[in-house]
Amino acid sequence: MSVLHTTNKSPLRTRDLESCLRLSRAGCGILLLEDAVYGALKATSAGAKIEEAAKDRRIYVLGPDLAARGFTPEQLVAGVAVVDYGGFVDLAAEYHHVQAWL
Amino acid sequence: MSDTQETEGKQRNVKRFMFLNRKAPYGTIYALESLEVVLIGAAFDQDVSLVFVDDGVYQLKKGQQSKGIGQKNFSPTYRALEDYDVEKLYVERESLEARGLTAEDLLVPARVLGAAELGALMEAQDVVLSF
Hints:
The complex is a heterodimer.
Chain A: E1 3-7, H1 16-23, E2 29-32, H2 45-53, E3 58-62, H3 63-68, E4 80-83, H4 85-94, E5 97-101
Parallel strand pairs in A: 1-2, 1-5, 2-3, 3-4
Chain B: H1 3-13, E1 16-21, H2 30-41, E2 47-52, H3 76-80, E3 88-92, H4 93-98, E4 111-113, H5 115-123, E5 127-130
Parallel strand pairs in B: 1-2, 1-5, 2-3, 3-4
């Protein structure tokens, strides 16, 4: 498989997610963790961009980070998969390499 | 010194402190550190207000369950602030709206103010501490 991109900053605070979406390619995976999970919420402006990206890329959200921040999977945009830490490890192994947008 | 003079002296020494919180909880240590300083400061009988702007509004989101990330859920502490006579909590309306949140989503009663009002409140402070 291709690249797994990870991003961990709130898209309301930095432009890391935008860069990640701009430079990632169809078929890749994008894992949102830590404060980046806010970006996949229906309620934020980043949510629409994630929903769009989910059409040709696989978008994942780290569940424990979502729960810590008081949100549930139902509040995420369509096309996003929630993974746990084990799932994170599986993804890291599955994709060719991991590219972190710090 | 008479009682009256002493009271006046105390009133003169009270400063207006504002804690300006602009970052989400857990991703960085700022939110927790701010709360620690607020609790320490509460012992000094000052005029304290807490303001939540930008991602800082996420600090007050209901339903935080942080066990899964191995961090302490410190959000219940915001509810205990009242016991320390810290009762002035303000949230910026624009920040809430940008995140699709309302006062209903917050775990503690806070006054929702627009940016203009909040700006005026900031200007009226003696000290503003940013987190």
